[in-house]
Amino acid sequence: MIDHLYRDLMIRLTLGAVLIAGVLGLAVYYYEIEKIDEAIVASVAAEARAFAPAAANHAPLSKPQPASGLAKDLEAFLGQHRNFSEGNFIVAEIYDIERDKVAEAVLPGSEWVERSLKTNKHRFPEGDSTWYVKRTIDERLFIQALTPLRSDKSELLGYFEGVYEVSPRRVAEITDLTATTLFMVVASVLATALLLYPIIRTQQHGLVRLNQGLLNANIQTLEVLGSAIAKRDSDTHTHNFRVVLYAVRLAEKVGMSQQGIRELIKGSFLHDVGKIAISDTILLKPGKLDADEFTIMKTHVAHGVDIVSRSPWLEEAARIVEAHHEKIDGSGYPKGLKGGAIPLGARIFAIADVFDALTSERPYKPALPLDETLSIMDKGAGSHFDAALLTAFQELAQELHAAFGGREDVSVEEAARRLTKPYFEVA
User: Fold this and answer.
1) Backbone angles phi, psi at 90, to 5 degrees
2) pLDDT, tens only, 206-249
3) How far apart are CA 263 and CA 267, in angstroms?
4) How far apart are CA 302 and CA 66, in angstroms?
5) pTM over 0.85
6) How would you classify the pairing of strands 82-83 and 87-95?
């Protein structure tokens, strides 16, 4: 069970780390890309503004400009400002302060890029900012940027729009840097999770031990309380352990849920806890109870439900405590429930309780042999007992009787604890 907890911890920690690494990695990826974009655009804008002196020679810029004038200078600019390690402008256009195009130049062989980017609608920037868009065409990275041109007196001359191709080397650097950063983030998160695992495991182990210790204490209290009531009633406490053994084995055979079996175990130990409220004159009366006394005796069911309902941990026993005297034909008490209206655990308990009562020695009777016990119980099938459950129990009866029938030694207690322990381990 503990190994299962640690495996779950590792799986959850790994999944959490992967999720965090993924989210953080994407955030870092976009942040790094944005930083790189800003750096490239700043470089592009600075290089574009280097054309400002040439533009100032043609001020004021107006349309149309002679081919030998501004356009020729623009062509020269494209040829002179080619930094192949970073990239270079391959298309350039000049707009006047009215935002009308007054000149353009295209580096020979780059006309196809201009045509591809014609569909992009540019936006004139405000102030000294730069507008840009990024496009990847045939695995080549282009930046289309538009930035203001100012004279040395900060007067607006017009606008420079250029298409800048980032060099393959620079693209490779960007890819490597982004991949490295992303890897470092993901690796850091996963490494942190790996380092946290033994710490969390140690803490969890301590909590598991503490919880299991508290649970064991509760189980011991359950046994002690049930045994105290049993001893007061019949001068023996082993009856409860035998009934638990019989009931749990039957419950397992018919496929009862773990939750249902936990309720059955608690109910089996505490089924008669309400007898603590019944006076000794009635509880220990050697003879048969009269009608009034029996009416009082039946109140032990309500007392028992009230007692176990006061504890969140014991209240699971309430359904068994309340219905352990009900009978299939509706002749039981306190509610006269019939058939399937009686909780499954209570129907199982009734068979185990009567079987142990018949096969155990009491001050007022000897222990009955197995065959006689089963014969008596057969007569109650469909009236006192659930017939299908009784048939299932009869398949176990010989084995259970041989191992535990009427025994009063500690081996019965140990066997019951071994059988019930898995149902109370910390999950």
Assistant:
1) -120, -15
2) 555 655 555 565 666 676 666 667 666 665 668 888 999 999 99
3) 6
4) 109
5) no
6) antiparallel
